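Researcher: Structure for this, please.
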Amino acid sequence: MAEAHQAVAFQFTVTPDGIDLQLSREVLKHIYLSGVTSWKKRAIRFKNGVLTGVYPASPSSWLIVVIAIMSTMYARIDPSRGMIDRIKTSLPVSISQHKLKSLNILFFMLRWSITLCFWLFSFMLFLLFIQYKQMETVANDFKKDPAPKFQKHLKLKSWWATNYVSDWWEEYIYLRGRDPIMVNSNFYTMDLLYVIPTHRQAARAGNVVHAMLQYRRKLERGELTPLRALGIVPMCSFQYERMFNTTRIPGIETDFVQHLKDRKHLVVYHRGRFFKVWLYYGGRHLWPSELELQFQRILDDKSEPQPGELKLPSLTAGNRVPWARARLKYFTEGINQASLEAIETAAFFLTLDDEAHGYDPENIRSLDLYAKSLLHGKCYDRWFDKSFTLIVYKNGKIGVNTEHSWADSPIIGHMWEYVLATDCFQLGYTAEGHCKGDINKSLATPTRLQWDIPKACQEIIESSYMIAKGIANDVDFHGCLFNEFGKGLIKKCRTSPDAFIQLALQLAHYRDKGEFCLTYESSMTRMFREGRTETVRSCTCESTAFVRAMEDESTTVRQRLALFKKAADKHQNMYRLAMTGAGIDRHLFCLYIVSKVMGIDSPFLKQVLSEPWRLSTSQTPQQQLNLIDIQKFPKYVGAGGGFGPVADDGYGVSYIIVGENLITFHISSKFSSPETVREFQTLLFFLSATCEYMILTNKLHLILNSSLQFYYLVI
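Model: Predicted structure, C-alpha cell format:
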C-alpha cells in the first residue's frame, strides 16, 4: 500500500557513525511542480516523447545510429535484404520521367527509414542484453561474497528478535523518513457508501465516538476474537495495541511512536479552534447523547482562532525536520506545551469539518472530492501525527485518516467495521436524527486550548502549509463503483477475485502505457508474530504473456483462456508464498540494512531496491467481523479506502470487493506528471479489459456492451 512509496522515496545511509539521511527528489520537486503550467507540461511531453522514442537508448545514441546508416550506404549494404528492389520490379514499367523521379525519392526515403528502424531496433536489443548481463553479473557476485555474511547477521537477529523484519521496517521505512507523511504515507477510509444514518453532525459524531470507546474497552480487556486465516490459523493482533492513545512524535533524525495507557479525553478541531473534551463522567463513558451535547456546544461556539492557531496542524503535514525543530523551540513550555500535550496524549483526534462530502450518484466526481478531503483535507484541519483522525462532515458523513507507521489498513478497517455496525444497528438515532438517551446538561463544557504562537513560529507554520498545499494540489483522484459483476460471478469461474483484478490491471496498464512496469501488491504476514506486510510482484512472465495474447488478434479464445488461468494460478501461488513468509522483498530490505550497518556497498541490493513501483495496488479487506448481513441490508456496504500515488509517473490503485456484485476502486496519480492520464480514463481501460475477458462457465466471452455504455456516458 502506501509503504511502497516509502520504500522507494525515502533514501538513507546507515553507517557505524550514524544515519546519513537524503531527502527524496520527490520532496524537492513538489513545490516546483505545483506551479508548472500547461505550456511547461507540453514541453515535458515533447521531451519525454523523444526519450521514450529511443528507449532504452539515450538521445546521444542517435549519433551511433547515424554513423551506422552512413556506413551501410558507403559499403553499399542493403539492410532491407532486397525488399526495395523487389518493390521496384513489381511496379509497372510505363512510368513517366517525373513520376520516376518522385518514386526514386520515395524509395530513397523508404530505404533510410528501414535502415534507421533496423539499426535502432538492433541497438535497443543490444542495450537490453547488456543491461540483463550486468544485472546477472552483480546478482551472482552478491550471491558469492557479501550475501552469506549478511544472511548470518539476519539469522542471529531472528534468534533474539520477535520479528526480524518489522522493527526495521517501522523505523527505516516510516519513522526515519523526513518527507511529509500527508499523502505520501497516511491513508484514508470512507463511510458507508449509500447510507447516512443522520444528517446531524454532532449526533453522528456522538454515536461514532461512543462506538469507538466501546471498541477500545473490548480491545483493552482482550475481548476481541483474533481473526483466523482461512478460518484456521490465528493472526497476530499486535498492531491493534497502538490503535488508541498513540501519536507519532517528530524528531530531527527520526520520529518515534508514543503510546500511552487509557486516555480519558479527546481533542476536537473546528473552524481553526482546538477543544478538549472529557470522555468519562462518574467512572463511565459518556453516553452518545452526552457526547452529542458536547460536540454541539463546540459547533455553536462563535469564538475566533488565536494567532497562528488556524493552520497549526499543517506542521504535521509538512517536512518532519522543521516540525521537530519548531516543537523543541516553541512547544516545550507554558501554555503551548500544555495544549500540545493535550493533543498528543488524547485518545484520538476529531475534526468537525465545515464541508459536506460523500457519494452522489449524480456527480461522477463526488467520490474523488470525498477521497481528497479524507486524504489531505485543507492541509491544516487534520492532525496527521495522531494514530488516526476521525472526520465528521456537516452533512453527517464520516471518514478516517490514518498514520501508517503503527499499523496497516486491515487493522483500522477492523475497528471501522465494528463502529459502523454499532452506530447503525445498536445505538441508532431518534426520529429527529438525534442520539438516543437522556441529556445531562450539567456536564462541564469543552475546554478551549490556549496558544501563544510567536511570529517566527507562524512563519514556519505557513511554510509547512505551502509545502503541504503543493502536494495536495498535485494529487489527482478518481473513485468508481463497478457493479456490472463482482466476486460472485468471478468465483463461479473458479478464479481468485484478487488474481482476476490484478490481471485486469496489468492489461489496463499495458493499454494505457504500451509497456509493462514493476507492480506492487500488499500482502499481510500476520500469521507470524508482529508480522506486517510483504510484496506480491504482480507483473510476471505469465501475466505479460496473457496481456500480449489479449492484444494479439491472431490468438484464439481457447489460447487466451489457457494463458489467463496460468497467470491467475501463478499470482495466487505468489500471494500464498508472501503470506507464509516466502516472499523476497522484505528479506532483501533487511539484507540492505545489514549491508549499510557493515559499511559494505552492494550494487545488487542498491539497484533492486531503487526501482520505482509505478503501479502500486492494495485490496482493502471487507467483512472481517461479519456484523452486517449485506445480503439482507445491501445498502449498508462500505466504500473502502485509498492512498496517494506512489511514483511521480505512476498510479496508486486501491480496490475493495464488496459482496457479490460490487467492486469499488480508488485510483490516484499526479497532475504534474505527463505520463499519467485522468483517472476515469484509466478506469475505463480497466472496465474494458475486465469485461473483455470475463469468464463464464469455463469459456472466454467478450461482453463489452456494459463497459462501452459506461464509456459513452462518461465521455
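Researcher: Any notable elements?
Model: The chain has 23 helices and 24 strands. The two ends are 30 Å apart (CA to CA).
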